[in-house]
Design goal:
Elements (H helix, E strand, L loop, with lengths): L2 H7 L24 H5 L5 H19 L4 H5 L4 H13 L3 H10 L1 H10 L1 H4 L18 H14 L9 H95 L6 E2 L2 E2 L21 H13 L4 H16 L4 H13 L5 H20 L3 H4 L2 H5 L2 E3 L2 H9 L4 E4 L6 H10 L4 E5 L5 H11 L5 E4 L4 H9 L3 E4 L11 E6 L2 E6 L1 H9 L2 E10 L4 E9 L7 H16 L43 H4 L19 H18 L1
Parallel strand pairs: 3-11, 4-7, 4-10, 5-6, 5-7
Antiparallel strand pairs: 1-2, 8-9, 10-11
Helix pairs in contact: 1-9, 3-10, 5-10, 6-7, 7-10, 9-10, 12-14
């Protein structure tokens, strides 16, 4: 069945009088029926409102979340659709013009206007509901049914009006739907705008809250940092106050005179040493060390000669005990003095123990005795050498060998108001390490540990302070060494002394301190090294070693032979280990040590590990010595 036939049969013929076909000239004007007269007249606006309400409700159902409004907040699409509908749907003026030109078109126009007049013909029992939700398709069907209920025109106009009605209804439906969508968009746009505005306000509020929280957090952090900085400053102020009190106390004990450098008062601080470290060493595990220091405080007031006699008495039985300390001393003596006998080594060892005990008994004198008693305990053999060096107005590096009484030299120099600083290694016992360094600066000066670095030493020298420096100890392979001649044995020494003198334009004075049991005094001997340093570091250090040997010539037993002075070998292939039986192994006592070839290289190299690189290659020297030895044998033959 075609659409035209459907229009014909969809409505009864009872309401045919309502069709406006009578407007044409050909058909007579139809009289209204009684029902139509009785029906209340409605305005055109009321009739038009009904089809508009249905698309609005439909649009609301189709888009309950307002997605279309959000996508098109300004209603641009709705306006475009309305414009298109207005263009597509024929206006009343156009229809009138068409009717004047073509009478047949009037029939079509009258037919098209039928849907508009149809609602007026309804009975009072079924009034028009303007707020009903009618779908666009149902509205189109209603309009079509109304058109079909109109009375049939002439047979020649039968097919043409039906086709035109279908087109007109379709255009009117599109126009109504577009207008409804436009109005729905216009109605939804403010709501979407309000929602967007509300969301923006909410986001702004959240951002403001987050900014406030961040500001509060930053303020809290700043307050905490300020409090921490204030606490640190307060602690630093307290430390400075305590240090000032300690320095004032030390100055009062030193006669009230200040230690000065060329750069001004108190130019150099301690490097690696804290005078107040004792406060951190009060734990129970350190109590034995503090008790030992208490015993030293008592022994400091015992007369020297009584202490010396006691040391001599206990040294002999102690020398009979075979300990590692003794093995190291004998290894050094046998290597440095191969011409001496075993009885000589034993005598030197016994005297060495005597001087070690004497020094231990007097170790606390610098701290516990009054200053005037300490100043009476030394004798200077050649004070003119020191006076000449001081008149030179240059910093002095006092190069001191490792004798048992070496700390007495530092006390003498600081007691004479010289701006001094000492360089020392840290000891294993922290209590004794603190006490040793503290008594070295009891009359003034500062301490610099080797761990503090080389720059602090250079800085102190450039500021005009004098350095108390010990350079004859073998510090091992971890530091740059050069090999010098010490009692005929290749010995490793740090090359720091010539560098310090060159960089700071300082003068070098060798100072040796020994103890005279007969005089019960400490003897100081100075030797100034002129034209030092030269361009040869090894020659400079050999020169220092020769002065050491001269000063120790009558006091061999007062040197610290218990140090491993020859542990670093220049070439393992040609030199033996003189401490082979001192390593504490089970078979140490059965090892036969070759002391001679620690002094003189072997003619044939020993087997060492692959890739070994010696500190100093002795292959050519060994070959030369071998040739000289063969020449001597050939000459004797």
């Amino acid at each position: 069945m075609s659409n035209t036939d459907e229009l014909k049969t969809s409505q009864p013929r009872d309401n045919c009088a309502s069709t406006p076909v009578a407007k044409t000239k050909a058909a007579p004007k139809a009289q209204p029926t009684a029902a139509q007269k009785a029906a209340p007249k409605r305005k055109a606006s009321d009739v038009k409102a009904a089809p508009k309400a249905a698309p609005k409700a439909t649009a609301a159902k189709a888009d309950p979340k307002g997605t279309a409004a959000k996508a098109d907040p300004k209603g641009i699409a709705a306006k475009a659709a309305s414009k298109e509908a207005s263009i597509t749907a024929p206006t009343v003026a156009q229809k009138a013009a068409t009717a004047k030109k073509d009478p047949s078109a009037a029939d079509t126009t009258a037919t098209v206007s039928a849907p508009t007049a149809a609602p007026k013909a309804q009975s009072p029992a079924d009034p028009v509901k303007t707020d009903a939700k009618v779908e666009p398709k149902e509205e189109a069907k209603t309009a079509t049914a109304t058109v079909a209920s109109a009375p049939k025109p002439a047979e020649q106009n039968k097919a043409e009006p039906n086709a035109e009605v279908k087109t007109e209804v379709k255009h009117q439906s599109k126009a109504s739907a577009a207008a409804s969508n436009a109005k729905a968009s216009e109605d939804t746009a403010p709501t979407s705008a309000n929602a967007a505005e509300s969301a923006a306000a909410s986001n702004a509020s959240a951002a403001s809250s987050a900014a406030s929280a961040d500001a509060a957090k930053a303020e809290s952090t700043a307050s905490a940092n300020a409090a921490k900085a204030e606490s640190t400053a307060s602690a630093a102020k307290e430390d400075a106050s305590d240090r000032s009190k300690a320095q004032a106390k030390a100055k009062a004990k030193s006669g009230g005179k200040k230690v000065m450098g060329s750069g001004g008062e108190e130019d150099v601080e301690h490097a690696g040493f804290d005078p107040d470290q004792w406060q951190q060493l009060l734990d129970v595990k350190y109590w034995p060390s503090w008790i030992a220091l208490g015993i030293l405080a008592v022994l400091a007031y015992v007369p020297n000669r009584i202490r010396d006699l006691f040391a001599i008495l206990i040294a002999y039985p102690l020398s009979l005990i075979n300990i590692r300390f003794k093995k190291v001393v004998f290894a050094n003596l046998r290597t440095a003095f191969p011409e001496k006998s075993e009885s000589d080594y034993k005598e030197i060892y016994r005297k060495l123990l005597t001087h070690a005990i004497i020094t231990g008994f007097a170790f606390g004198e610098g701290v516990f005795l009054p200053r005037f008693m300490v100043e009476r305990s030394w004798i200077v053999k050649n004070p003119e050498v020191l006076k000449a060096a001081l008149d030179d107005k240059r910093p002095i590096i006092f190069c001191v060998p490792h004798t048992f009484s070496l700390d007495r030299g530092g006390l003498y120099l600081t007691a004479n108001r010289l701006p001094m600083f000492g360089v020392a290694n840290d000891q294993s016992n922290p209590v004794f390490n603190w006490f040793m360094n503290y008594q070295r600066v009891i009359y003034g000066g500062t301490m610099h540990t080797r761990a503090a670095g080389f720059r602090s030493i250079l800085k102190a020298l450039k500021q005009g302070r004098h350095c108390y420096f010990l350079c004859d100890e073998d510090l091992g392979d971890d530091v740059p060494n050069v090999f010098t001649d010490f009692y005929g044995v290749p010995k490793a020494m740090v090359d720091t002394l010539p560098k310090m003198a060159r960089l700071t334009k300082s003068q070098v004075v060798v100072l040796t301190i020994t103890y005279s049991i007969s005089k019960a005094r400490y003897e100081l001997e100075f030797t100034r090294l002129d034209d030092f340093p030269s361009n040869d570091v090894v020659a400079d250090l050999n020169r220092v070693n020769k002065v050491f040997e001269q000063h120790l010539s009558g006091h061999i037993e007062q040197y610290m032979w218990f140090l491993r002075l020859f542990k670093t070998r220049p070439d393992l292939r040609y030199f033996t280990d003189c401490y082979a039986d001192c390593h504490g192994t089970k078979d140490a006592n059965s090892i036969k040590v070759d002391y001679y070839h620690r002094r003189v290289p072997l003619f044939e190299p020993q087997i060492v590990w692959d890739g070994y690189v010696p500190p100093k290659d002795y292959s050519e020297i060994a070959a030369k010595l071998k040739a000289e030895e063969e020449a001597k044998k050939a000459k004797k033959a």
